[in-house]
Amino acid sequence: MLVTNSNTQPIIFGEKPLTNALAPVSSLLNNGSIQTIPNISGNEIERLGLQKNLEEEIISLGATDHVSLYYKNITDGYEVKINAERSWIPASMVKAFVVIEAFRQKRLRIINFDSRVTVKEENVAPTELELTDYQPLRAGVKATIRELIEAMIDQSDNTAYNTLMDVLDRRNITSTLRRLGLNNTVVGEKLSLSDEQYALDTLVPGRQPNKTTAEDVAHLFALLEKGKIENSDEILSIFKNQKLKTMIPALLPANVDIAHKTGRWAPYYHDGGIVYKIGEPFILVVFTDHNDPNIIARLAKISYYKTRDVLGIYTSSVPEMVLEIFHKAVSMFEHIGKNKR
Predict the structure, then answer these.
(1) What is the Cβ-side half-sphere exposure of residue 198, based on CA atoms within 13 angstroms?
(2) Which residues contact 242 (CB under 8 A, 6 or more apart)?
């Protein structure tokens, strides 16, 4: 691995630079601490230490070729990238991009969030979680565009997403992402369709496979965090309300706000967004195809505490289904509490 000092002279650790997919920074370390290197900054030492911990965890889980990760420390500006440019099927993470286009069209008065849309049979699909906060989206149901947006993120509703793809025109979504600098992302297909629904969707202009990268998703959340996209605060508040918490939030303190969007389509498990750690917020995006959402939970915990020492022995952790049942129960009691008030 190459590292440059303040005189821009390359420093080579070991007999030759590391060239494998993860390029571990372990050769920079001695018994867990950075070796003395002249002119290296404190932020760079912290970055290298975090990268080492993340890489070692990925290797220990046997997921070396199954993870893309992008981390950015918002306060200090340093980044950790592990296969961050790899292209992925985004699964439900694609819904984050739809929110951006919906707000753009609202600003231009192309759509009105209070307008009601009738759900069509061709868009009805199984969804990850149905909360009592929203009416079940079935054929013939009328829902406002705002309801569709919130259900699409809050409970990752596939029917809401499929309906919005028609309302917004998928070609507009990808075009907007290009203008924002997301050059490796395409939003072109609906989710969880039956064979008959899929056949209909292939005839729609702009239909093509969805794809994205950890780097593109991180770039989007960086724009939102900096307020570079209009209505950023309102958009982030929607992402903060997401109820699916089995990945990035699973092992973090319960009082930490997280604006994020998940994706799940086994063996694909993804999560990405902003973790509002007090005094040190950071962006974290992780894509995996290792059929285990707990990998993301563990990498998020390392990113939060900057050490693997906070992790216990890995035993596939709490099964995802148990966590989802827990969060459904929490949502139900929250809803009951609201009604009582």
Answers:
(1) 6
(2) 153, 154, 156, 260, 261, 262
Domains 2-88+218-340 and 91-212 share a fold: yes
Domain ranges of the chain: 2-88+218-340, 91-212
Three-class secondary structure of residue 67 per DSSP: strand
CATH architecture of the domain 2-88+218-340 equals 3-Layer(aba) Sandwich (3.40)
The Cα–Cα gap between 248 and 295 comes to 9
The phi and psi torsions of 68 (rounded to 5 degrees) equal: -120, 140
- Smallest Cα–Cα separation from 111: which of 153, 169, 57, 68? 169
- Give the C-alpha separation, 171 to 208, whole Å: 10
* Rounded CA separation 162/170 (Å): 10
Per DSSP, which regions of the chain are E strands?
2-4, 10-12, 29-30, 33-34, 67-73, 79-82, 116-118, 142-144, 258-265, 268-275, 282-288
Q: What is the pLDDT of residues 211-221, one digit of tens each?
A: 999 999 999 99
Q: What is the pLDDT confidence band of residue 295, given thresholds at 50, 70 and 90?
A: very high
Topology of domain 91-212, per CATH?
Beta-lactamase (3.40.710)
